[in-house]
């Protein structure tokens, strides 16, 4: 399968670090992949003789809490303080705006990701593994040696399986690859988990928004991108039915306008994704937003593989007609 893959020998690549702890973390407003795969990546690095510790860059959502409960694993601590000159390993992102404020002052040793390469600069050559799979956990699984795979504890296999099922929406997302399916099969066996039953409970947790206010919902899975030089924020809310947010929609749209004003973003997008009917409703704010304030896109489930290219094409159309 095509993709971007660079791998440099790990434990001795940075001899001046000595026994410095590698800080492993995913993006801000973390989803399950960002946290679960950070924990698994830290374990993998330790297995390779590198001291590493996983962190999270935000609160865990209900789905991620469910996965950690099933795994019997404690959540990683919240990352605080400056990363200046500290060794770090990024999981599930390379967009600097999706990381801590001091990320660009840190020493990036490596990346495990499945998104586009997003403008990251490193001081030294780093161990970079980016593959076009449905989940960072799949990338990590494919990177592991057979010996390390055999040593993987059931608890971490559960975390990685949960990350894959979450990111691929239980294999419904167009980002899903055969490699994701194969990794999930192997991980479910290692975890001793019935994949179908686990998927069902996980999706219930993913789409449970009861008691969550509009501001929290908008920021729960909010990511920042740069498209054609424009600052773009995209908030995705995955739902079992769009009816779940009918009463909250006015408040969500108000929060979307507030986000655009407070961040000076060119475009802010609210992506309401109905995983049962495989479609998304999109709402826009900001000075560079499309002419239509909203639209419904059948078949759209993925922010990465579908919405970003769709939005990029709309920006191209605007540029051609302006």
How are helices and strands ordered from N to C?
A: EEHEHEEEEHHHHHHEEHEEEH
Largest sheet, in brief, is: 7 strands, mixed
Q: What general form does the structure show? A: globular
Strand order of the largest sheet: 1-7-6-5-2-3-4
| Helix share, percent | 25-40%
Based on helices, strands and strand pairing, what is the structural class?
A: alpha/beta
Count of helix runs: 10
Describe the protein's architecture and organization.
- The chain is α/β, with parallel strands linked by helices and 322 residues long.
- It is 38% helix and 20% strand.
- It is built from 10 helices and 12 strands.
- The protein has helices at 32-47, 62-71, 136-143, 146-151, 154-167, 178-191, 195-206, 214-220, 249-263, 303-321; strands at residues 4-6, 22-25, 52-56, 77-78, 87-91, 107-113, 127-130, 222-227, 230-239, 267-274, 279-285, 294-298.
- It is globular and about 55 Å long.
- The termini are far apart.
Helix and strand topology:
Elements: E1 4-6, E2 22-25, H1 32-47, E3 52-56, H2 62-71, E4 77-78, E5 87-91, E6 107-113, E7 127-130, H3 136-143, H4 146-151, H5 154-167, H6 178-191, H7 195-206, H8 214-220, E8 222-227, E9 230-239, H9 249-263, E10 267-274, E11 279-285, E12 294-298, H10 303-321
Parallel strand pairs: 2-3, 2-5, 3-4, 5-6, 6-7, 9-10
Antiparallel strand pairs: 1-7, 8-9, 10-11, 11-12
């Amino acid at each position: 399968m095509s993709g971007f893959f660079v791998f440099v020998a790990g434990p001795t690549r940075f001899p001046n670090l000595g026994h410095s702890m590698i800080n492993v973390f995913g993006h801000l407003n973390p989803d399950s992949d960002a946290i679960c795969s950070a924990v698994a990546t830290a374990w993998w690095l330790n297995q390779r003789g590198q001291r590493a510790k996983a962190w999270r860059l935000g609160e865990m959502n209900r789905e991620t809490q469910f996965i950690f409960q099933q795994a019997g694993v404690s959540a990683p601590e919240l990352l605080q303080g400056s990363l200046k000159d500290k060794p770090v390993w990024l999981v599930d992102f390379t967009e600097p705006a999706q990381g801590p404020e001091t990320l660009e002052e840190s020493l990036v040793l490596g990346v495990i990701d499945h998104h586009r390469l997003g403008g990251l600069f490193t001081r030294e050559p780093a161990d970079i593994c980016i593959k076009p799979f449905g989940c960072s956990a799949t990338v990590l699984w494919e990177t592991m040696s057979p010996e390390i795979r055999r040593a993987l504890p059931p608890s971490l296999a559960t975390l990685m399986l949960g990350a894959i099922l979450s990111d691929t929406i239980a294999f419904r997302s167009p980002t899903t690859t055969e490699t994701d399916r194969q990794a999930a099969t192997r991980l479910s066996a290692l975890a001793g988990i019935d994949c179908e039953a686990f998927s069902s409970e996980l999706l219930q947790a993913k789409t449970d928004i009861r008691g969550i206010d509009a501001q929290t919902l908008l920021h729960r899975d909010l990511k920042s991108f740069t498209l054609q030089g424009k600052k773009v924020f995209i908030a995705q809310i995955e739902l079992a039915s769009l009816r779940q947010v009918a009463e909250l929609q006015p408040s969500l749209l108000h929060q979307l306008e507030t986000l655009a004003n407070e961040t000076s973003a060119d475009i802010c997008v609210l992506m309401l994704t109905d995983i049962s009917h495989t479609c998304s409703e999109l709402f826009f704010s900001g000075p560079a937003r499309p002419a239509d304030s909203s639209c419904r896109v059948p078949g759209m489930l993925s922010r990465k593989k579908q919405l970003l290219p769709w939005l990029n094409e709309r920006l191209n159309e605007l540029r051609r007609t302006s």
